[in-house]
Amino acid sequence: MHQTPHCSDFVDEPLPGTATQELGWLCIENDAGWGRDPFSGENFASEVGAAIERFAEERDLRVLLIRRPGRAAGARAAHRVYVARSAAGETALRRYEVDEYAQIPSLPVDDPAAGEPAEPIALVCTNGKRDVCCAVRGRPLAAALAAGYAEPVVWECSHTGGHRFAPVLIVLPTGYTYGRVTEVEAREVFDAARDGVVATVGLRGRSSTPPVAQVAEVAVRESVPAFGPDLVRVTVESGDVPKHGAATGLATVRHRDGRVWRVAVAADELEPRIASCGKSPSPARAWRITEIVTEPVAADRNCHQFESHFDHD
């Protein structure tokens, strides 16, 4: 009997350059059953959902629903709300609690001192209503990863994008996104994040940057010892990136210590494949590195110049 393939069965598409592009995140604890997206089910009264959606859009925040793996913690009287900023140099994660979802649009998220500072959290997409691969591959990973931490830092989450790379893991606040990770790899990724460095196993890219920058940054990080999330800035110098098909680009990766890499990238068209279970095949591409040039660090280079550049980017 012929078995219909799942979207995550196709593993020939390289991961770098595939992270969803988002500058910020609004993560709302919700233990109810989820619809295809945060506002399509019965998670919020219609007027409350509309107000939350406007609130998030005005602040460039992607709304995700989150819940503890296995819902083992049970329903809480209050709901946790996390607001994450993921742009390099601006990363921040603040935690709030609300008794009613209607309070969310009144949260003072524009005040950087409001809310409580939070340690990094790991989100694993488990939204089976959107794609079966996220449920089948994501839920076991989320449960196994959460078992290693006493505090609630691992969460199941609603649709993040990239079902075909399931299980998908996002670390906040940085927005580094991972795919096809095993339990061991996921723990390596999250432990590294908690220690202030970026692991490269399964790394798709940083959500605050476009594909060319994601590919360039992953390549540089894979070529040197692990370092922190905000020690580099990536600038796309040029890029011809149509929606589908072949693409090219050039990016400059600057490290705070003065090192600079010029990274040329290209993407080749792949055979169409299903991007989501039950859907028709759609175009896909594979990013690759065509050249990396490491610029020599001049002995008289003014490090303060780089500090100024980083502080004011």
Automatic annotation (TrEMBL):
SUPFAM superfamilies: Thioredoxin-like. It comes from Tsukamurella paurometabola (strain ATCC 8368 / DSM 20162 / CCUG 35730 / CIP 100753 / JCM 10117 / KCTC 9821 / NBRC 16120 / NCIMB 702349 / NCTC 13040). InterPro entries: Aim32/Apd1-like, Aim32/Apd1-like_bac, Thioredoxin-like_sf. This is Sucraseferredoxin family protein. Transmembrane segments: none annotated. CDD domains: TRX_Fd_Sucrase.
